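Hi support team,

I submitted a single chain yesterday and got back a structure, but I'm not sure I'm reading the token output correctly. Could someone confirm the output below corresponds to the sequence I sent? I've pasted both exactly as they appear in my results page.

Thanks,
R.
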Amino acid sequence: MKEYVDLYDNFRNKTGKVIERRDIVPKGLFRLIIHVLIFDKKGRLLIQKRTKSKRSWPNRWDLTVSGAVSSGETSQISASRELFEELGIKYDFSNSYPNISINTGFRIDDVYIIKNKDINLKKLKLQEEEVSDAKFVNLKQLLEIIDRGEFVPYQKDYINLLFYLRDNTNLFENY
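Hi R., thanks for writing in. Yes, this is the structure output for that exact sequence:
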């Protein structure tokens, strides 16, 4: 089944153009990606292991949930859908704004952070074709997984930023 994504201009306005999910984004346009990060009460991040059959970065660990925003969806709808599809967790993002939105050159990454969430790993419903395992890790453990080449190739600075944002989501509160 083919999946399609909307294209956006540099002001995050939909252009009316749609491409297939795996197609190259035309220069000057962007596609929308979501990341959901779940941290438990100990400050550890829930990460998932991609299946051996995944097309990109098979058998590597990844953030809690990541995915392309399908055509016609909002970032919030996609975050809820992906979290439920991949891990069986219901969460309503309809009144949420991303904790951070990053322009990576040809895509806009919306990152949603859920803090202090107790998750029973045994009760997760892993999407068989996408996820083979899940576990909680602290920052040190995650950086070690990255050093061993067992994680999707995010920059360590990005991972450090995500952990920083876990505790500092109101950076301009007193501004």
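A quick pointer for reading it: The chain has one domain: 4-166. Let us know if anything else looks off.

Best,
Support desk
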